[in-house]
């Protein structure tokens, strides 16, 4: 049976489609198997033959020969790279121009001119099919900020420091008038979550230099020691705080950040953004140096009013029902930030004397 299968498989391999049908019928009659089994046996025998036998019996490739070979592809790739790796739709109308430039600089001297002429007449569809196979040059990507964010821990419960001074939330308000194009002013708002002490400053642009000017101005008007800064995820302020902390002349402070897209993590300063910034200067666009100077003059006076003369209440307790809904809120007695600072037992006498002298000079 095996010899019969080998003999019939060899005849089957060399035959036409019509002849193969006759061979299968004859084999089925002799062996008593069905046509599918016969075909599988023949194919198995053919597959197990030596590679050279299969190669000889493979026959000619069907279809027409390819018009464009690897040589044409190399020429097209040179033109594509010269164009700046543009798409096929943009490259096709300019192909003859790029070929001309390559000829001038002797880049095509190693190629047969008949191949070069054929490339000039390539169709747009063929050009696109070739370009899609070319590896694109990877441009150097800007280094990410993963390392920066990894250095700063996330603190989603910064408000739990509301019973001790020296913990400051930071946020920035943009003054773009609804159009973020170009350079415009920003206001940096710093709030001590315990005292309610607020400082505001403005600068033009969102660069690290502008943020540095805001930080210096606000830091001068925070008279007690800051133990921890808690900004949002703005990269300029995070970088600035990290760099300043490395200065041996600066008292050490911790840095934490809020979670992305969680404004409640910076709830104290977010509340001040509306009440102490937007309500004061509005939603207009401030993009001139004169306007920024006026904003800073306004903030300097307004900070003194807010800290020394305007009282505020702090949330003491929330009353909830059985369903977890807030029924009522209990607040502490209203006090100014200045009063809380003076009454605090965790602030030095030197700082208290300084703010008392400032308060005496205010009329």
Strand residues, percent = 5-15%
Number of strands: 7
Order of helices and strands: HHHHHHHHHHEEEHEHEHHEEHH
Biggest sheet record: 5 strands, mixed
CATH topology descriptor of the largest domain: Nucleotidyltransferase, domain 5
Provide a descriptive summary of the structure in words.
The chain is α/β, with parallel strands linked by helices and 363 residues long. The chain folds into three domains: 2-56; 70-131, no CATH class; 160-307, Ribonuclease H-like superfamily/Ribonuclease H (Nucleotidyltransferase, domain 5), CATH 3.30.420.10. It is 48% helix and 11% strand. It has helices spanning 2-14, 17-31, 35-47, 51-56, 70-82, 88-91, 95-104, 113-120, 124-131, 146-151, 208-220, 235-245, 267-281, 289-308, 337-343, 349-360; strands at 167-175, 185-192, 198-204, 228-230, 254-255, 315-320, 326-331. β6 and β7 (326-331) form a beta hairpin. Residues 51-55 have low confidence and may be disordered.
Which key features would you list for this structure?
single chain; alpha/beta; Nucleotidyltransferase, domain 5; two-stranded antiparallel sheet; 16 helices; five-stranded mixed beta sheet; 11% strand; 48% helix; 363 residues
């Amino acid at each position: 049976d095996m010899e019969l299968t080998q003999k019939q498989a060899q005849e089957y391999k060399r035959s036409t489609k019509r002849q193969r049908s006759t061979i299968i019928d004859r084999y089925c009659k002799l062996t008593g198997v069905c046509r599918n089994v016969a075909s599988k046996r023949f194919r198995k025998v053919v597959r197990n033959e030596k590679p050279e036998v299969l190669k000889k019996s493979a026959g000619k490739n069907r279809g027409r020969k390819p018009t464009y070979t690897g040589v044409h592809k190399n020429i097209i790739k040179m033109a594509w790279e010269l164009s700046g790796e543009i798409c096929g739709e943009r490259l096709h109308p300019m192909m003859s121009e790029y070929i001309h430039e390559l000829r001038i600089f002797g880049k095509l001297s190693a190629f047969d001119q008949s191949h070069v002429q054929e490339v000039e007449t390539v169709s747009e569809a063929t050009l696109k099919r070739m370009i899609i196979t070319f590896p694109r040059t990877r441009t150097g990507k800007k280094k990410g900020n993963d390392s920066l964010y990894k250095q700063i821990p996330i603190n989603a419960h910064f408000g739990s420091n509301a019973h001790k001074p020296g913990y400051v939330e930071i946020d920035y308000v943009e003054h773009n008038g609804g159009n973020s194009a170009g350079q415009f002013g920003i206001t940096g708002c710093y709030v001590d979550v315990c005292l309610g002490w607020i400082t505001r400053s403005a600068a033009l642009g969102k660069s690290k230099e502008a943020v540095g000017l805001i930080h210096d101005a606000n830091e001068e008007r925070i008279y007690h020691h800051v133990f921890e800064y808690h900004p949002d995820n703005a990269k300029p302020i995070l970088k600035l705080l990290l760099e300043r902390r490395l200065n041996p002349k600066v008292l050490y402070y911790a840095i934490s950040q809020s979670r992305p897209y969680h404004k409640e993590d910076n709830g104290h300063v977010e509340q001040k953004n509306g009440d102490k910034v937007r309500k004061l200067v509005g939603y207009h666009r401030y993009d001139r140096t004169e306007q920024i100077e006026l904003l800073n003059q306004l903030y300097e006076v307004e900070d003194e009013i807010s800290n020394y003369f305007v009282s505020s209440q702090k949330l003491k307790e929330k009353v909830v029902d059985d369903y977890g809904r807030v029924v009522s809120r209990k607040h502490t007695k209203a006090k100014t930030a200045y009063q809380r600072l003076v009454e605090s037992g965790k602030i030095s006498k030197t700082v208290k004397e300084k703010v008392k002298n400032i308060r005496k000079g205010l009329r």
